[in-house]
């Protein structure tokens, strides 16, 4: 094929536009129960489910499950989900919403909890007290004990809501004023308290949980949600090796891998790890890549594993965005297409969704586009028949 003809053919594979809404919090409120960095909007997996799934009760898989957006949206739309992530926090965020109890049952459960029992002082309390009043910390510790003893759907969901209220920037959170999306270091919070002339005040835990639950459950779950969510699979594995997922069992993959050198999930979630008793495991290698070669190697092995679990003719969508590395803009979708060669996945098309910046992207100084727009670059791959 002549060079000009080849370029023309490839240009037909790039679709530009706003394929889903750019507005914030348009999906079901259950998606926004808890914040999680680098999450995509539920409208993204919804768009591709409608695009590539022809029947209900299909199996939708996210190898980098994160907050659980793909899995929850799959259940909302009448599909079974497989949620995988190497981060135990991710599994809790997703599985705590597998079974969503009714609001009245949840409120009754919260009100039945006795959080007043005095706890002895612990070795790590000095790291927590820059965030929490001693009385608030005591209540949080009691809630942790209930979660360790009671694994009912009600208690798991209450724990999820408590996790979302653990630290933030308003009086609706358990902590003094701090950043809601990440757990900043204790010493940094201590300095913030001095700078802001603040100290942790007592904030009662139970009413804040109930207030948040009422907001998140203001829209009823679809009546069929649990019919599909009860068949979900939750897997704790690296995306490039997920042995508990059967070969050729998945109808659609929608996912977004970690980008280059962007998010340290261990450090950013240390308070959440404390609350859930997630220990720092030296064997758990959360993916942070400082160079493109390592990232490409990991993506290639992940695509090969994804090809294994996909049914023949089924699609995989990988959202990779754009990354600024020094003065250079890296379009990672091009690397995904290259890494797919020889894996059994064939490039079908790439959707380049553009939208105006959100408050959160501005906060993190995301500047993916010179014209002030934020792009999702979604590579669509198809498993060969």
From TrEMBL:
The biological process GO terms on file are:
DNA restriction-modification system; methylation
* Matching Gene3D superfamilies: Vaccinia Virus protein VP39
Which keywords fit this entry according to its UniProt record? Methyltransferase, Restriction system, S-adenosyl-L-methionine, Transferase
Which GO-annotated molecular functions does the record name?
DNA binding; site-specific DNA-methyltransferase (cytosine-N4-specific) activity
Domain of life, per UniProt, equals Bacteria
- Keyword S-adenosyl-L-methionine carried by entry: yes
Q: Which InterPro entries match?
A: MeTrfase_CN4_CS, SAM-dependent_MTases_sf
Whether Transcription regulation counts among this entry's keywords is no
Supply the EC number(s).
Answer: 2.1.1.113
Which reaction is recorded as catalysed by this protein?
Answer: a 2'-deoxycytidine in DNA + S-adenosyl-L-methionine = an N(4)-methyl-2'-deoxycytidine in DNA + S-adenosyl-L-homocysteine + H(+)
Q: Which family does it belong to?
A: Belongs to the N(4)/N(6)-methyltransferase family. N(4) subfamily.
Mind telling me what this protein is named?
site-specific DNA-methyltransferase (cytosine-N(4)-specific)
């Amino acid at each position: 094929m002549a060079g000009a003809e080849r370029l023309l053919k490839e240009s037909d594979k790039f679709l530009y536009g706003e394929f889903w809404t750019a507005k914030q919090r348009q999906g079901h409120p259950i998606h926004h129960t808890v914040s999680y960095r680098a999450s995509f909007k539920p409208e993204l997996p919804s768009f591709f489910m409608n695009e590539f799934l022809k029947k209900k009760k299909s199996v939708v898989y996210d190898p980098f499950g994160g907050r659980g957006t793909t899995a929850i949206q799959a259940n909302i739309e009448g599909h079974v989900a497989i949620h995988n992530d190497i981060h135990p926090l991710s599994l809790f965020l997703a599985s705590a919403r597998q079974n969503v109890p009714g609001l009245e049952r949840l409120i009754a459960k919260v009100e039945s909890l006795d959080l007043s029992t005095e706890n002895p002082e612990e070795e790590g309390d000095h790291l927590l007290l820059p965030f929490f009043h001693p009385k608030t910390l005591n209540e949080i510790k009691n809630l942790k004990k209930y979660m360790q003893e009671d694994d009912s759907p009600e208690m798991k969901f209450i724990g999820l809501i408590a996790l979302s209220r653990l630290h933030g920037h308003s009086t609706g959170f358990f902590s003094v004023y701090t950043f809601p999306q990440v757990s900043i270091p204790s010493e940094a919070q201590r300095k913030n308290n001095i700078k802001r002339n603040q100290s942790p005040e007592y904030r009662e835990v139970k009413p804040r949980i109930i207030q948040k639950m009422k907001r998140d459950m203001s829209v009823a779950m679809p009546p069929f949600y649990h019919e599909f969510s009860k068949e979900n699979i939750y897997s704790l594995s690296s995306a490039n090796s997920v042995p508990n997922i059967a070969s050729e069992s998945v109808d659609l993959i929608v996912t977004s891998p970690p980008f280059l050198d962007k998010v340290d999930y261990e450090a950013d979630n240390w308070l959440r790890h404390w609350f859930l008793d997630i220990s720092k495991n030296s064997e758990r290698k959360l993916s942070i890549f400082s160079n493109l070669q390592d990232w490409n190697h990991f993506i290639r092995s992940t695509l090969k594993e994804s090809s294994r679990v996909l049914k023949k003719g089924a699609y995989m969508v990988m959202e990779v965005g754009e990354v600024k590395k020094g003065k250079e803009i890296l379009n990672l979708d091009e690397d995904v297409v290259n890494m797919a060669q020889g894996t059994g996945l064939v490039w079908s098309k790439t959707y380049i969704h553009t939208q105006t910046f959100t408050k959160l992207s501005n906060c993190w100084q995301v500047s993916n586009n010179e014209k002030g727009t934020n792009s999702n670059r979604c590579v669509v791959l198809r498993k060969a028949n």
